Amino acid sequence: MVEAGEQLAGGSTTQPATALLVLGCPQVPVQTSIALYLMNRLKKAGITPVVAGNKAANTLLVVADPDRHYLGEVMDLDRAVALISDKKRDFDSCYVFIHNDAGVSYAATMGAISKAKLFAIVYGEHYEEQVKKIEFPCTTIAAKAVHNPLPLKKAIDEVKPWAA
Amino acid sequence: MGCVESMNYEIVLRDASFKESRDYIKGNFKEFVDVQPGFKVFDVHVIGLPPIAIGLDGDFVIFPYTKPCHGTFLLRVEDADEAARLRALKK
Prior knowledge:
Strand order of the largest sheet of chain A: 3-2-1-4-5-6
CATH superfamily of chain A: MTH777-like
Structural class of chain B: alpha+beta
Helix content of chain B: 10-25%
Number of domains of chain B: 1
Number of strands of chain A: 6
CATH topology of chain A: Rossmann fold
Order of helices and strands of chain B: EHEEEEEEH
CATH class of chain A: Alpha Beta
Distance between the termini of chain B: 32 Å
Number of helices of chain A: 6
Shape of chain B: globular
Shape of chain A: globular
Strand order of the largest sheet of chain B: 1-7-6-5-2
Number of domains of chain A: 1
Largest interface: A-B, 28 and 20 residues
Oligomer: heterodimer
Radius of gyration of chain B: 12 Å
C-alpha cells in the first residue's frame, strides 16, 4: 500500500506529506477534540500534522497530549503565516478551524499564500453563517457542533480528507 | 500582539468582521491600496479575504489586524515612510 507522500517512481521516496492544522479561538469546546482526532487520522495515513494556533489553543492540545501520541510540531499562528507568506515553508494540505469571522479570514489567507489543498472545518452554533462567507476554493466540512464533537467527526469521516 | 504592541497605534474599529473593516476603509478614506493576504504592512502579515484594503490618510496608514478570538481591528499608525511605500504601489 502506498501511503501519502510516498513515490514509487524510480524506487525513491520523498518526504512524508504534511498537513497544517490552523486552530481558531478555543472558546468552542469541540476544536481541541476534533484537532486530536484529525491528527490521529492523518498520522495513520502517513501524513505529518503540524499545529498552528494562538497560545491558548496550542496549550489545550499540549496539555491534553503530554506524551505527544498525536501532537507533533506546534507553532505560533502568526509565525506560521509569516513563514508561508515569505515562502520559507509550505504544506501539502491545510485544515482551518472556523467558528467565527476571523476563522474565515485565516482560511482565505491560507488559500492565497499557500499551495496546500485547503479544507475549511466549520462548526459552532452559527456555523451556517460562516459557511456563507466562504467564497474561495476549498473543501468545506461543516456541522453544528459546540460541545458534542460527534456531528463534526461524522462530517469529517464522510469526506475522509486524509485519503484525498 | 507581538510587534504591533510596540507601535503607537490608534484603534479605529474593534471586534469587527473582515467585511466591516474593508467597508470602513473604502467608505472613510479617499485613498487606499488593495493588497493580497500575507502582504506585509510594517512587520505584520495582513489576514483576510482578498483584496484587502489598506487606507492612507496623509502620513497615517490604516490597516486590518486580525486575531482568532477578537476578530478584526482597524489600526491607525503614523509612519511617513510606510505610507509612501504603500502609496508607491498604486503607481
